[in-house]
Amino acid sequence: MKPPPEALAALVDGTHADPFALLGPHNGPAGTFVRAILHGAEEAEAFSLKGGRLGKMTRVDGPLFEGKLQGKPKPIRYRCRGNGAEWWVTDPYSFGPVLGPMDDFLIAEGTHYRLFDKLGAHVIHHEGADGVHFAVWAPNARSVTLVGDFNGWNPAAHMMRRRVDIGVWEIFIPDIGEGTAYKYRITGPDGTVQPLKADPFAFASELRPRTASIVARPGKREWGDEAHRAHWASVDPRREAISIYEVHPGSWQRDDNGWFLTWDEMAARLIPYAADMGFTHIEFLPVSEHPYDPSWGYQTTGLYAPSARFGDVEGFARFVDGAHRAGIGVLIDWVPAHFPVDEHGLARFDGTALYEHEDPRLGFHPDWNTAIYNFGRREVRSFLVNNALFWAEQYHVDGLRVDAVASMLYRDYSRKDGEWIPNAEGGRENWEAVEFMRATNRALYGTHAGTMTIAEESTSWPGVSHPAFDEGPRTALGFGFKWNMGFMHDTLQYMARDPIHRKYHHNEITFGLVYAFTENFVLPLSHDEVVHGKGTILGKMSGDDWQQFANLRAYYAMMWGYPGKKLLFMGQEFAQRREWSEERALDWHLMDAPAHRGVANLIRDLNRLYRQTPALHARDCEGEGFEWLIADDADNSVFAWLRKAPGEAPVAVIANMTPALHSHYRLPLPHDGVWAEVMNSDATLYGGSGQGNLGQVTATDGAAHIVLPPLATIMLQYTG
Fold it and tell me: Among 58, 388, 490, 677, which one is most buried in terms of CB atoms within 10 A?
């Protein structure tokens, strides 16, 4: 039966909702019938993929051709002629679907844990042809067409097949491959054509300001990191030394022209540097695609695509592999808390609030001008959970640091009365977001041994780093670790005070140890502390230049002796003086100055001591690894505690936070005998005055009399 004229017109203008019903080969009463849109052709003939003639086509109207073919329906190629030219076209409407019933079932259920193998753009061999399979979720769309450089961005060239049960649109385009640029042209339920949309599952994107998705193969074919991954899969990370170097990849260093380093250039510089400095992990601010440089990657619009700023996607995989071969883990910031509203992104993707909430009281952050994911929708939750799994699977990242967790946990986050909607119980908790985080952590820890998740959570939500067991508390989120924001805030506030006033604020150091083991903590000195007028870590220290450096060294040494894993933002390891800016590289010339080189030497030695000394790391997250020696000497602003681990030599950490030299300070110690001075932040190697204990002290009758250098932290390890 001949389709009505309006249906044929919809085919030609690219708005038909079911193009596969009319285009391509079909069984009919008189044999196989085929219909095709062949732009620019004046005549056409159909062939099999192997070159066998199937029949001539008749031009019906404009680019629309029809014909009867020999044999059963099969993939077809057309030899086209027009304007004195000849070319070949393989008919995408002659191929069957790629997705199957099991995909439909798992996608509909929200339990498909390899969506990134099914949705997006994949280079495949299908029914005898090489090409790319595209699939996108747009359940409320009237029609979806694929546009790109392969079809001249023609919105009528490649209308997609709708899988009605799950709202996914798909098409296989033969004869194209990696490097193809594309977007989706989506007509919403009301007939409004949306701005061209990038692929939510795109594995690569164009370099900003362009926003098209790029066909790419994620990850790399061959890896050499088996030993690294096997090690971390075999240990409890809570009992391992973890010292994280936080890096913004766009401004750590730049090339000679002031442009971003490629991942390969970064690997040649950053990996050896981090290894030499003794860090165990590099943590990158978001590496996924984002249009706006000053967002630092937190306004991501391409969750599955490493940013084009740093070269090809395999470059990031090569970086991770190289870091692993050097014994360094790679963590990335992951950002489900920010939903940018750029028109090419997920906002009103199919003409409706698909990924986000319709009601701004549920779905908009006024502070950031970003939307909020609809965590209660299973398809959205599945999209995000799969993204977490994707980075672990395809790029072998060792873990995810999850940004702005508090903003997801609370419906009233940064909102006034009337600007938010309570939950079904009348409370402020966002239980849908809670369940999303629990599901993410269960999926990641359940499928990728050796990975870790770290929450930036700024409130006292109970059980952020407690296992998300079904039978456990509803509030347990299942993260491996949590940033200790209280430690950062209180201790930096203390260090900013003039030493003469510190005795009145002794609790700013001691209070954190009241709750130090309620979660698995990371101690963060992050990028957030060195931007937006906050200065640098050095600049937060009190006193003149010499005192600031002494304070900084004492603070770092105290931090490395404090229970919890360590995190330090780039540049702070050599006492960067200028506030960080994403627009420029760090001030590496400072390393030529003795005071700055001294701080770098200190961080290097602290990392090595921390890693080599189980007493300093093996019980970072457990109370049995900590014991106060002196907690109440506020008058002298002295703090002393013991770090220990079963079967290991304990380490005493003593901090003197005044400029006064104590030459005969009584320190209680649990074991008589020799205690070696294994760290002294006042050593001349670090830029200090060189005061100390000549390498060791001897404890008798439960105490030793020690030299406490001014504004310094020392560590003593029991040797017997």
Answer: 388
